[in-house]
Amino acid sequence: MKKKINQVKILLDALPYIKRYSDEIFVIKYGGSAQTTPELKEKFARDIVLMYLVGIKPVVVHGGGRAIGDMLDRLQIGSHFIDGLRVTDEKVMEVVEMVLSGSINKEITDLLNEHGAPALGVSGKDASMLKAKPIDMQKYGYVGDITKVDPKVINNLIAEKFIPVIAPIATGQISGHPGFNVNADIAAGHIASSLKARKIIFMTDTPGVLNHEKEIIHTLNEEQINLLKTQGTIAGGMIPKVNACLHAVNGGVMKAHIIDGRIEHALLLEVFTSEGVGTVIKL
Ligand SMILES: Nc1ncnc2c1ncn2[C@@H]1O[C@H](COP(=O)(O)OP(=O)(O)OP(=O)(O)O)[C@@H](O)[C@H]1O
Ligand SMILES: [Mg+2]
């Protein structure tokens, strides 16, 4: 009986959050490093479906760095990184598209559908939703910087009660162009601000942004982030993530969260409890 009362209490505690967030758009960046086991993927899908069923409008943007690396190895296509970016020639771009738009996008879409929410997978090439320009063609090849997001198609999908699942690939806008490999964090940040999302949540493989002593920092603003970047405390894959958080909050998103996707149900803990988990970034 006591257990049952506790279960009801949990539901009641979530009530204010359900009311607050009903009808709001949440962009969730599902990092490759949080997609490690089938169990975690299942739990992620159930969390998204629960959010959806209580009236939140989730939009999923996914990464897939590791899966791209694995496929390049299997196909024996060499590739390397400069400044944390995968140098992307035409052959590598073909694999990036195959893995992101093909395998990962469809896997996530399928999982969400199986768990009872109508998800629809697209890439930034669909309806020319994401436009980009090369960062430096000589140096990085087809790695793109987003120049424009057209949120129309995503808004239409949301209005039709779909959960859009977006692969971070941008159109090259020229016939025969392979398109651009864009960082998924940056894509998520741009998508969130163009949709005027209430929140953006990054699910990754660390408890949040860590300080020099490897302790979690619970809240951050732009000034503090810039300091941590110059000190080299924020490095590697965390750099595009915090930049995307800043882009989102400067573009009207109320809060950006970086949470540990390896923790079961991290999303629900963040959204429906007062403590939250991870790092929150706001203006
Ligand atoms: N100050 C910091 N706090 C936490 N993590 C940091 C920090 N600086 C650098 N990192 C690194 O950033 C990594 C997270 O970014 P990463 O790009 O690896 O994951 P992801 O974006 O979730 O996955 P993917 O890029 O495949 O979509 C952490 O695992 C950690 O190694
Ligand atoms: Mg990353």
Secondary structure blueprint with pairings:
Layout: H1 2-21, E1 25-30, H2 38-53, E2 57-62, H3 65-74, E3 81-82, E4 85-86, H4 90-114, E5 119-123, E6 130-134, H5 137-140, E7 143-149, H6 152-159, E8 163-167, E9 169-170, E10 180-182, H7 184-195, E11 199-204, E12 219-220, H8 222-230, H9 238-250, E13 255-260, H10 266-272, E14 279-281
Parallel strand pairs: 1-2, 1-11, 2-8, 5-8, 7-10, 11-13, 12-14
Antiparallel strand pairs: 3-4, 6-7, 9-10, 13-14
Helix pairs in contact: 3-4, 7-9
The protein binds adenosine-5'-triphosphate and magnesium ion (MG).
Magnesium ion binds at residues 31, 63, 65, 185, 237.
Task: Provide structural commentary.
With 283 residues, the chain is α/β, with parallel strands linked by helices. The protein has one domain: 3-Layer(aba) Sandwich (Carbamate kinase), CATH 3.40.1160.10. The chain has ten helices and 14 strands. It is globular. It starts with a helix and ends with a strand. Magnesium ion is lined by residues 31, 63, 65, 185, 237.
Low-confidence stretches: none
- Tally of individual domains: 1
Major sheet description = 8 strands, mixed
Q: Give the CATH topology.
A: Carbamate kinase
User: Helix coverage percent of residues?
Assistant: 40-55%
Strand order, sheet with most strands = 5-8-2-1-11-13-14-12
**Average residue-wise pLDDT:** 95
Q: Shape from CA axes?
A: globular
Spell out which ligands are present.
adenosine-5'-triphosphate, magnesium ion
Structural class: alpha/beta
Order of helices and strands: HEHEHEEHEEHEHEEEHEEHHEHE
Q: What is the strand content?
A: 15-25%
Task: Using the 3D structure, state the CATH architecture.
Answer: 3-Layer(aba) Sandwich
